[in-house]
Design brief:
118 residues; mainly beta; seven-stranded mixed β-sheet; four-stranded antiparallel β-sheet; 11 strands
């Protein structure tokens, strides 16, 4: 099992910034992809950004140019720097890690609330 612990959510005004962190512990496997998803009330969970062990990144169109994902493999931690936040970024943000190790493995964090006020 892998445990994911998110931190850094909160309330911010539109145009502000937040940084989310997610540390992984337990039976870490590599290579893996770590990422952030979000779910707003009444909407489906959607990918925000993800990053492979090698550093390749992928972003949702809605956050390109505003959010930056990064990771520190030595700390098993992934970060999401969020700038120029908009009210529509309000959601619960979930950390995810996935990859293949004796089968497909996919784990989620508990989620952290991000609220952007207008």
């Amino acid at each position: 099992q892998v445990q994911l612990m998110e931190s850094g959510g909160g309330l911010v005004q539109a145009g502000g910034s937040l940084i989310l962190s997610c540390g992984a512990s337990g039976s870490i496997f590599r290579p893996n992809t770590m990422g952030w998803y979000r779910q707003a009330p009444g909407k489906q969970r959607e990918l925000v950004a993800d990053i492979t062990s090698g550093g390749s990144t992928n972003y949702a169109d809605s956050v390109k140019g505003r959010f930056t994902i990064s990771r520190d493999n030595s700390k098993n931690t992934v970060y999401l720097q969020m700038n120029s936040l908009k009210p529509e970024d309000t959601a619960i943000y979930y950390c995810n890690t996935r990859g293949y190790s004796s089968g497909f493995r996919n784990y989620w964090g508990q989620g952290t609330q991000v609220t952007v006020s207008s």
